[in-house]
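Lab channel / #folding
Pinned by the channel admin:
"Please post every new chain as: sequence first, then the structure tokens as a reply. Keep commentary short and put observations after the output so the thread stays searchable."

First post following the new format, from NK:
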Amino acid sequence: MINLAELGRVFILCGKTGMRRGIDSLAYIVKKSFHLDPFSGCVFLFCGSRKDRFKALYWDGQGFWLLYKRFENGKLAWPNNEAEVRELSEEQVMRLMQGFTIDHKINTARARELY
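Reply from TO:
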């Protein structure tokens, strides 16, 4: 498995992005909508409405890489706020790549029952 966190800082662009978009339009979204530099060497993650696949855009200094991951079983727990971009920790990147939610969630009602 590719460890995206080893490439540099990783940003998740929340909400849905059309999965038909290519390198140029994804780089445009990064720059115009979120005021980030697509040539910075950071990894930018995009997800479509089906939430069973995502794309990663990465500039290596000579050109762009566009990586695509599709999960055969299950869906991603992708943040919904389309106006938000979040930087992910290395642990969050690994959780995402394995198909888990990036945020630890505790069912407080269930936790109260246990105590």
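NK: The first strand starts at residue 10 and ends at 13.
TO: also worth noting, The chain is about 25% helix and 25% strand.
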